[in-house]
Structures are given as C-alpha cells and as structure tokens.
C-alpha cells in the first residue's frame, strides 16, 4: 500500500462514490509493482465496522501517514492508516466536499446542511480540523455554492459560482 511519503509512487487509491442513498462508497487500491488491483479494501481491513465507507465519497487525500476520505452525504471525514487502510478515526462535518492540508490542519469545504434544493439554504463554511486530535478546531463562514480552488501554496480560494467572482479567501 501507499507509504504517505514523497518519492516513487507505489500505487494509487480509488474512492468510488457509490449511488446517493445507497451507502456504497468503497475504497480500492492498485499496486504498480505487483499489478494487483484490490477492491473494497476498507471493508476487508475493517471487518468490525460498517462494510462500506458511507454515502457518496467525494474526495480522498493522503497527508503524512494518514488517508482521509471525505464522505459527503454521510457527513464525515474517515481517517485511515495509509499503509493498511485501517480505521483510525472520524470527524463529523455536514455535507463536506473537499479537503486540503497545511501544517497540522485540514481545511474542509462544507455546504453545512442537508443535500437538497432550498432557496433559503444556510451559508456554508470551511472547517479547520486538527489532524492530531481528529476534531473540529474552527469554522469560517463562506457563501453558498462554494467551490475550493487550491494553489501551489495551499491557500484555499472559495468562490461563489453564481456570482462568478472572488468572494472569500482563507489563508492557511
């Protein structure tokens, strides 16, 4: 499996979204050296937990020796060991979408409510998560319909798509 360290790439993880409402998000891994593709490794490596990751996998990132799966409709970030894909912890973030890291923190975009069409939808936010304690550290409000754009310096840009202009910036 992946090492979480920089250097030669050993393989890749694939987060399958699954169908909304079916709780079928799965994690798979392809090992370049052996040519072996391993399906649904989260369920295999975590037999005491629910068999799939949840409802609608949205983003997957490696940070240090941890693998972070953002599971949108299940309102959680699943934290796993990058070498084994074993469960380490979870962080609850409603309607979470994307994740990026800087220093010991993860920054997660959230639509902050249920998945539904509502003209009076509450304002979304960017959650700041402590990656050592796996807990929400802070939340900064952002406009509706937020979309993160990541730059090389790991600044997170959050734009309101319907305005088509820069609306807010979070400096990590």
Provide an overview of this structure.
This protein has 172 residues and is an all-beta fold. The chain is built from 1 helix and 14 strands, in the order βββαβββββββββββ. It has one helix at residues 41-45, and strands at residues 11-16, 26-31, 36-38, 57-63, 66-71, 76-81, 87-92, 96-102, 105-110, 125-130, 135-141, 146-150, 156-160, 165-170. The strands form 4 sheets. A 4-stranded antiparallel β-sheet has the order 4-5-6-7, with no helix packed on it. The two termini are 30 Å apart. 27% of the residues are buried. The model is unreliable at 145-172 (pLDDT under 50).
**N- to C-terminal separation?**
30 Å
Rg over CA atoms: 16 Å
Number of DSSP strands?
14
Question: Hey, roughly how much beta strand do the residues contain?
Answer: over 45%
Give the uncertain stretches in residue-range form. Answer: 145-172
Summarize the structure.
With 172 residues, the chain is mainly beta. The protein has one helix spanning 41-45; strands at residues 11-16, 26-31, 36-38, 57-63, 66-71, 76-81, 87-92, 96-102, 105-110, 125-130, 135-141, 146-150, 156-160, 165-170.
Can you give keywords for this protein?
single chain; 172 residues; mainly beta; four-stranded antiparallel beta sheet; 1 helix; globular; disordered C terminus
């Amino acid at each position: 499996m992946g090492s979480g360290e920089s250097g030669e790439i050993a393989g890749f993880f694939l987060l399958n979204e699954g169908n909304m409402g079916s709780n079928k998000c799965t994690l798979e891994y392809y090992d370049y050296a052996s040519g072996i593709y391993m399906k649904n490794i989260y369920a295999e490596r975590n037999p005491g937990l629910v068999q799939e990751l949840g409802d609608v996998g949205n983003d997957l990132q490696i940070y240090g020796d941890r693998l972070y799966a953002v599971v949108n409709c299940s309102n959680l970030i699943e934290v796993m060991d990058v070498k084994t894909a074993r469960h380490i912890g979870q962080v609850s973030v409603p309607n979470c979408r994307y994740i990026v890291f800087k220093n010991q923190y993860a920054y997660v975009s959230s639509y902050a409510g249920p998945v539904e069409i509502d003209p009076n939808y509450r304002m979304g936010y960017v959650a700041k998560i402590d990656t050592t304690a796996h807990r929400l550290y802070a939340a900064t409000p952002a406009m509706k319909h937020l979309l993160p754009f990541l730059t090389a310096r790991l600044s997170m840009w959050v734009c309101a798509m319907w305005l088509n202009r820069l609306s807010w910036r979070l400096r990590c």
